[in-house]
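Q: My labmate handed me this sequence with no annotations at all. I'd like to see what the chain might look like in three dimensions before we decide whether it's worth expressing. Could you predict it?
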Amino acid sequence: MNSTNSISMANESTASTNKETVGSDSASTSYNNYPEMSAEQEFFLYELETTDSGSIGLVLRAIYDTGDVHKFARALERRIAHYDKSILKVSTYYTRDIKGVTETIDSNVQEMSAELLKKSTEIVRYRKLQRNANTAIDQITMCLPILENYAKLQSLMKQKKYYQALKVLEELEHTYLSHIQKYRFTQSLAKSMAPIRDQIREKSYSELTDFLESLQKISRKIGEEVLKKTAEHHQIFKPDKNKDLKQKKSSSTPRDTEFEISKDGSLMKKSPRNSENSLEIHQRKEESLSAQDKIDFAPIHRCCQIFNVLGDKERFEVYYRNQRREQSMVVNRPPVKLQESIDTYVRYLQEIVGFFVVEDNIMQMQPGLVTAAHKDQLWEMALQQITHTMNSHFGNCLDVGMMLKMKKVILLFALTMKSYGYNINSLYTLLQNFRDQYNEILMREYCAQFETALQNDNYTPIMVRNEEEYKAVMRDFPYYRRGQDQEEFPRRFPFSQFVPAVYKQAKSYLLGCLSFMEDLQLTQTEIDDTVRQYANVLLARWSGSLKGFVTNKSRSLIQLIQITINMAYLERSCEFLEKYITELTNRGEGGGSSGHLVTLKGQIFQEARSEIEQLIEQALKDKVDAFLELANYDWELPQASGVASDYITDIINFLTTTFTSFTNLPSVLARSVCMQTCKHLAERLHEMLLSPEAKSINNGALEQFSLDVMQCEMFTAQCPIEGFENATLTMTFAHLRQLLDLVMNADWSTYLAERSQENRKYMRVRATDASTLLEKMIEFEKKTSGFFGRGGDRKKLYDTILQQLKRLGN
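A: Here is what I predict for the chain of 810 residues:
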């Protein structure tokens, strides 16, 4: 306060002093004129001092106009000098006061300056602090996202959200860290973040492995559901009607009192529907889900995204394909106990279907991960393994029912894979190979049934006693004979029970063949022709079985005859089987078989029939031989008995009965057998007559032998087999009759005279036979000594005849 008051007082005194000084100066300026200065110069100086700057130029011009510039210049210099002195005086006057004030002011200014300096220093310091703080805030603001993202990165890694963590890591590295690389902590962050990529890569591989393992566990269930849907769509496995009926009955009961059918067929109360537990509801919900709904494909998406960001997309794709290839090899490898049941095969194929269904879904969602080439390669591997497995494990199957079920399973598998775009041609080839194997096994079964029917047949024509039995036979075999419906019971069929039984077997076999060929991508004509081919093979094998059966020496003649009749009707049945095949293959009655490359060969039994015909002939010959072996001719019989021998009578009775049973045989066969039998009988009688064992023969024996031949001739004239021309059958004994007539009548002259004629009387008699029989008669006469003892003329005559006969025989 004291300094302030002194400064104000000094200012007031200085002001008063200045007023006094100014007054004296102005007085001196106005009145103190120099002697050399004129009034005009005084006026110019006054004008210069008082006028404004704009009028100076006028004053100066006026000065130059007067011409006295030097005087004015001296006057101006003196005026300036005068003013300098005045200023010096005033300055000296005021200097004394100003020094004191100045010292006071200086001291105050110094004090205030020191304080101001102190405050300004503080302000500078605070401003620096503020600037540093703002800089720090700005830098921290830049670092906060890094720290937040790093914390987020650590959290995402703990939560196993690797794709999000990788995106955060990418953002940290490319967006934030580049701006704050000058800080040391960023180096630590970068160092800690460096292994995170490798961790994410390893975790992703691990997640993929877990995902693939989960696929392996669920693939069979997926395959089961896909196969089930395919079966329902194509109606391959038809539902059990009885089961459906039970379900309808059980579902039609009132809701308040529900029942269910137990295993033994009885009804038992069922708990109310509202009491279903949550587990059953959950199971039904799971069944309603599709295969894709049951699989969480998120891991595969994440892995693809992660490796795409990591830049290892190709490496990941190679890894995935290698893993799936290894899994495919495991899935394709058949289980050890594959042949235990059909369910084992089904589970094996379900695994494969599930694997490829999943692979197809992954290809649709990630086309770059699963390519068509990769999928086809896996399918080719699987197809080769499946074909090898089926051929090795199932190729030796001998169960027809098992093969038919397996065919449906393989067909279901093929149709399922076809719906997903896979090539299944080799599966159809496999099925067609199994078709041949199946038909071979089926054929063996029916060949065995055929042989059983052969063994068990009674070889007697079927006799029916009433209409019901008659219709039963007609249902089994389409036999028709004119007027058979009007015949009275009992009615007789020409064939035995063997024929309808075998015909039913043939129809059943054709059904079995056709059941395997369904849905094998064969045209209708191929199916028809294939069925006919197999039918021809079956008939050929049956023919071979017949041939083997009849060659057994224990077969009786009755059996052989009935088998021949049966074979004739089996040949006729081929026409009915043709129609039956046409009906089976839905070609309609108008389709016929003319358009087929293959037809049923009715003549396929020709070889067996020829064999049986020969056996029948041989059996009749053997029977004739058996009767003839019982014959005991007395070739020196004194006199004939007047009737045929007993053995001849027995033979004739046997042949009559046998040939009567030939009614149902083919007429050509019956006539052929009859003719050959009669020829054989004639030959055997001829052999007996000329046998070397009989050394001599008399007329009585010849007469008895002639009666026997006459009985045979009477039989041939009255043979029960129709169709022979007049005397055709009788001619079989003509050579015997002519020989006997020649010798008994001693008509040697006629024989020798007509020897060169075509229509000779004894044209069937050979000279050797005649000479042999004549020698036997001569031998008998020699023994009795009565023939040549009365004279030598007759002896010479017979010697001459005998010589001529021998000469003719040579």
